[in-house]
Write a structure and sequence with these properties.
Layout lengths: L9 H4 L8 H22 L2
């Protein structure tokens, strides 16, 4: 006999997602890395 598919609540279904503010932290980190590399590039000249 086949098993019934598991039904998840909305909260259970999105347990792997982070808060929406996480995208700003990731974007800020990316911008910071680009700025640091630009400073290193111009300082090495």
């Amino acid at each position: 006999m086949a098993e019934q598919p598991e039904h998840l609540t909305g909260t259970e279904a999105r347990e792997g997602t982070g808060p929406s503010s996480m995208r700003y932290v990731l974007f800020g980190g990316l911008v910071l890395v680009v700025v640091i590399f630009a400073v290193i590039l111009f300082a090495a000249r």
